[in-house]
Amino acid sequence: MSHTIAAVSTGNQVSAIGILRLSGDDCIAVSDRVITLNNRKHLSDLPNRQLYLGTLRDSQGRAIDQCMVVVSRGPHSYTGEDTVEFHCHGSPAVLAAGLEALYLAGAKPAKRGEFTKRAFLNGKLDLTQAEAVIDLIEADTADAAANAAGQVGGVLQRKLAPIYDQLVNLCSHFHAVLDYPDEDIEDFGLDNYREVLRESEEALGALLRTYGQGQILRQGVAAAIVGKPNVGKSSLLNALAGFDRAIVTDIPGTTRDTVEESVMLGATRLRLIDTAGIRDTADTVEAIGVERSRKAVESADLILLVCDGSKPLTSEDKEILELCRGKKKLIALLNKCDLGRAVEPEALGLEQVIPICAKSGEGLDALSALIDRLFAGDTPCDGSILTNPRQYDACRRGSLAIGRAIAGIEASLTPDAVLLDVEEAMEAMGEVTGATVREDITARIFERFCVGK
Fold it and tell me: Which CATH number covers residue 406?
């Protein structure tokens, strides 16, 4: 028996529609106590997954809202249990009153992520699918949403299941021969599994190599805007952000610390970091900002080097250019092209140089297209990209253990010694899907969720 839980699943903002969700063995009976259907039937008489109109009422019988209600009986529901949803008008006051009525009728408040946790515990989702639910909710680009949707649909699970199954088959064959020597079981030989382990190692390696692309999908591209003072770095940040995020003046050194803003540029999410102008300075505060700028150059995924293209390059420009050269992905921007060109793109000796005008927006479309090309991954965003740090770590440990098992076979170790590594790999792969994950880890995973999901 599972107790009935209830929550608002659509947030607490005013909206056209707001949904009250229930799940549990008694949710239909609980819901019947607060709804009067226009057709005068009880919820227990309704077919699955059909909407019916009724009046939601409080404990005193007063009308709260005219709403639609739908029943989905387990196991053919999101949680695998009986579920009921009330589709109300999206007033926070209406939803709060409806939720209070459900509590008084016998429901209990849902915990964070409890609906999805029940779906996991009831075998409706594995852990990769459950974690992808929150990624889908939090996705802020179309590619991130598409990849998360694919994982909710089981793409990642289908990639990992054969690897886990092969490891289980290897271990079970060994133990079957060991425990039942008199049975007619095919002899166990490690050489027969060498190729299987290599295939598993290669499959995991291919998945692990998508993690860099996955981090960009999940977090965006950390892009540091660098250059000497007064070349237009803050103007560029404001132009890309679409509003005056940073103070812009003609006084060099106005930006004395890093300023961050997240923006969409084309299909790429950028985490822009406007840095203090890099130069030698006796100002203590500005010097701290300059040091932070240097650190931003080291940690960024992308460096946008801004120069004043209307004036010849100075020694400061050249020093900063050398600081940035060879650092990951680098794009030089010759700003103030509306004032004439004193610097030709070839003079910087870089592959990617774009003339721009941060004030007018000239050249920003070319910058957007270039960044999309630079960060377009090779793996399709269909759920095949590994984005979750916990999953990455478990897959990494699984791959290392399989590698040790292969090395053990090649070193002619005994089967029981090799199987220690195989079982370690199997444990790690089970952590990814939830087959062997500890309860405290699953609890922490579902704490990331909002109440009502």
Answer: 1.20.120.430
One-letter identity of residue 401: A
- On whether the CB atoms of residues 160 and 141 are closer than 8 A, the answer is no
What are the tokens at 298?
């080291």
Which residues in 214-228 are b (16+ Cβ under 10 Å) and which e?
A: bbbbbebbbbbbbbb
Residues near 298 by beta carbon (within 8 Å), at least 6 away in sequence: 327
Tokens (6 digits) for 358: 């941060």
412-415's contacts with Cβ under 8 Å and 24+ in sequence apart are 415/174, 415/188, 415/190
Picking from 69, 86, 110, the residue at the C-terminal end of a domain is: 110
H or E stretch covering 241: helix 233-241
Could you tell me where the beta strands, DSSP code E, fall in 207-328? 221-226, 259-265, 268-274, 302-308
Q: Could you count the other beta carbons within 10 Å of the beta carbon of residue 448?
A: 14
* Coil vs helix vs strand at 20: strand
Is there a contact between 294 and 278 (Cβ–Cβ < 8 Å)? yes
What digits encode the pLDDT tens for the residues 89-139?
999 999 999 999 999 999 999 999 999 999 999 999 999 999 999 899 888
Place of tokens 């250059």: 227
Alpha carbon 3 to its chain's center: 31
As a whole number, mean pLDDT of residues 275-287 equals: 55
Give the DSSP letter of residue 309. Answer: T
What does the pLDDT read at residue 368? 93
- Rounded CA-CA distance 142/196 in Å is 36
Element (H, E) at 306: strand 302-308
CATH code of the domain containing 288: 3.40.50.300
Say yes or no to pLDDT of 398 above 90: yes
The answer to whether the predicted template modeling score (pTM) of the entire model surpasses 0.90 is no
Strand order in the sheet with 221-226: 259-265, 268-274, 221-226, 302-308, 329-335, 353-355
Number of domains in the chain: 3
Inter-helix orientation angle 114-121/439-446, to 10°: 140
The SS3 assignment for 302 reads strand
| φ, ψ (nearest 5 deg) of residue 90 | -85, 40
Look up residue 110 and give its two tokens: 């849902």
Residue 363: inside a domain: yes
Give me the amino acid identity at 287.
A
CA 232, CA 333: separation in Å to the nearest integer?
A: 10
Amino acid residing at 95: L
Q: Which residue has the tokens 């004193």?
A: 342
DSSP 383: T
